[in-house]
Design a protein that fits this description.
By secondary structure, the chain is α/β, with parallel strands linked by helices. It has 11 helices and 13 strands. A 4-stranded mixed β-sheet has the order 1-2-3-4. It has a 3-stranded mixed β-sheet with strand order 5-6-7. The longest helix is centred in the C-terminal third of the chain and has 14 residues, at 185-198.
Length: 273
Amino acid sequence: MHVKDIMKKEIIHVDKDQNIQDALKLMKKHKVSRLPVVNMNTGHIRELVGIVTEKDISLKLGSSKYGNLPPSHFHISTVMKNNPVVVESTENVGKAAKTMLENKIGGMPVINDCEIVGMLTKTDFIEICHGKPFNATNITERMSTDLVTVSPQDRLVHARRCLIDKEIGRLPVVEEDVLEGILTAKDVAMAMISFRKIVPDKYKTARIRNLLVEDVMTQNVKTIDGGSTIDDAATFMLKNRFSGIPVEVDGELAGIITKTDLMNFVVELEEVS
């Protein structure tokens, strides 16, 4: 199977001179978490100059250096990653998945002759995690058990730092061993934007530091039972548009299964096939 067989051919892109808020609106509208960045000044809408993700925006907005600037002041070019990792449409699916994992990225532009022809994301790999052997493999065999968690009363700046330092996209929020919510990089990004809109500049830095995880986290988190299979997890993720799901065993948080875990499985299967 090749990249062209699973990639998304619709290319939602953003110009490097647009601002962060424009990018987030596009992401929300099209339900994506990353956008290829193009240079419209050249007249070639498929001339790739970078890539921007929700996580990039979250990190920029949460930094002390840019703490008092509104999102409308940030051009995409100040946030995007230059020279993004790309993949040829004819590349093998297993090798493409390995490239994404090695570079710790959630998606990459697909190119033919230096022109963007599609986007490949973790979701595209999850869509093939059905049938054998996925329906015969228990999620407890693939889930992550070394969890990084925060409490509802932790400061949001602390949680943001955990996301950065551990290079992860989500944090279970736990209090007295009970799962109270989940916090994602997207939650942080959206909270920072909303906060900056309503708080006067002179109070921004101090008040951002007083934001708590419980002010931003998603409550009433959906979980998956440890007796489920990889096929079940893939279906659950696609249906709910989740990138990761907390796993419970006997009613207690035992781990988390993510798209990355499923992609690692795909790579292993491709290498032995």
